[in-house]
Amino acid sequence: MEMKILVFAETFDGLFKKSTYESVHYGASIAEAHGGSVLAVVIGKATPLVEDLGKYGASEVVHINPNETMNFDSSAYASLLDQIADEQGAQAVIISGTTNGRALSGALAWGWDAGLLSNAVTLPSQMNPTQVKTKCFSSKGFAHAQSSEERVIISFIPQSIGIQEHAVEASVTDVDMPVNSALQVVSADRVSGKVPLPEAECVVSAGRGLKGPENWGMIEELAQVLGASTACSKPVSDMGWRPHSEHVGQTGIAINPEIYFAIGISGAIQHLAGVSASKNIIVINKDPEAPFFKSADFGMVGDAFEIVPELTRAIAEIKNQG
Amino acid sequence: MANFVDRIENGADMKILVCISHVPDTTAKINFSAGGSSLVTDGMAFVINPNDEFGLARAMQLKESDGADVTVVNVGESHTEPTLRKALAIGADRAIRIDAAPVDASFVAAQLAHVIKDGGYDLIITGTESIDYNGNQVHAMISMANGLSLVYPCVGLQLDGTKATAIREIDGGKETVETTLPLIVAGKKGLVEESDLRIPNMRGIMMARSKPLEVLAPVDGAQRVSVATYEKPAERGQVAMFDNVQDLVKALHEDAKII
Hints:
The structure holds two protein chains of two kinds. By secondary structure, chain A is an alpha/beta fold. Chain A has helices at residues 18-34, 74-88, 99-111, 217-226, 234-238, 269-275, 304-321, and strands spanning 3-9, 11-12, 15-16, 36-43, 60-65, 92-96, 115-120, 131-136, 141-147, 152-156, 171-176, 184-190, 202-206, 229-232, 259-263, 280-285, 298-301. In chain B, 30% of the residues lie in helices and 30% in strands. Chain B is globular. Chain B starts with a helix and ends with a helix. At the A-B interface, helix 2, helix 3, strand 7, strand 8 and strand 9 of A face helix 4, helix 5, strand 7, strand 8 and strand 9 of B.
């Protein structure tokens, strides 16, 4: 029997998240390698069209109209996916490890009696039993985790797989199913115009070396020319110079961008744990002995207050030419 | 199970359960045995999982402001007791240790779900994730197992009787949600500030010795995931150092082609 792979196609404010396309591609890659097809599940209004998921490899889309509320609730969403997975005879579920995706994965694993392989950083090396490389010990190690259940949920770290197209025609089924939640969202405070850190391709981060919150203007400017998100080290968020939501590291947010600029951050082991998955690390620090240089790809010793504005000008020049 | 709503509305203390993982210290160097079969723990210092510590501190604040009986629970073998004693020294009233190795999230969730079902807790606090296996799984599993709502990741919690107002992170922002107890919150920094964390004092340490630490046998729980092998991340290549911005930008743009 052909394996049916269910993919949770997450939306945010009615738009597909970038990692949703990555999830569909993840499912399609398993389907191609092991035989099977991809069924994407969308909850609520989605823009652009749900049919577009076909482009990334979904041959079927179940589009749930949740009637009134569609506030995220891990248990309520898990119940919907659980029902569809059973009806469709799904054997695997793919969920991208976004904030909501992580909670949903655990809830579904319990309700659907599945093995949950979370923090996957690759496609599975085998199915049945399913085994995949996962991040553990806050990026200080990897585990090849294996599910002893035939039913498996893989939650991967966004941006660890990438997005590819697998053009197929998607047939769409619309269904009405209520989201039954005891959680009522009363207000939302959304940072607009910035890519959330776990999904950012470029991150500019600064630490105590900046001496005070009033000096973040130059960090924002560098981030702006690069189209980057801004981040900070733990001491900076603990001192209230920057919001907790910008703290990257072991007890903050783990990131895996293409490019990570670390400015005035010494590189404590707890910080490295959250950022070492970055593909290219550029460290600027006045202390030539800063441990971060040992974990960097590009480094420059010097005063951030001189280097950063010059860097911003030089990069802006390149971007203007491009 | 005691009726929690009646209990709080009648002015009795609420019951809080804080779930605690026993994890390698944040500064620990991680090494695996030859062949990658297991974590090398020789000489390794273990601590209360940092995310759980924020939850424990919030429980202490609620105990002081509203009155609460705080239980800490860990699924682990006897070597995790110092971690539970530390939580008692910080101020928890009692501790429970489920005497079993925490083999995977599903097994741990089954143990905690049983404790929660028996204990009649009004508020259950976990961390968002433990810093060892980073699973982010157990809170959502116990939420399903016990039919309780989950706030994940919880970076703010206010209680007014049985009404709870919590702040949760979403990708790119925060949401304020309202719900009622009993409730599970998966906390991290923000639930309290770093400066609100408590360090056990001598009196706390002395008192912790005589606080109850109950050891329970595990209940049945399926292990669904195992680790075939571990490996360390690949070493990064040698860093390329630059002494002027022009050369650095040239290397990033023309050679590495990343900007």
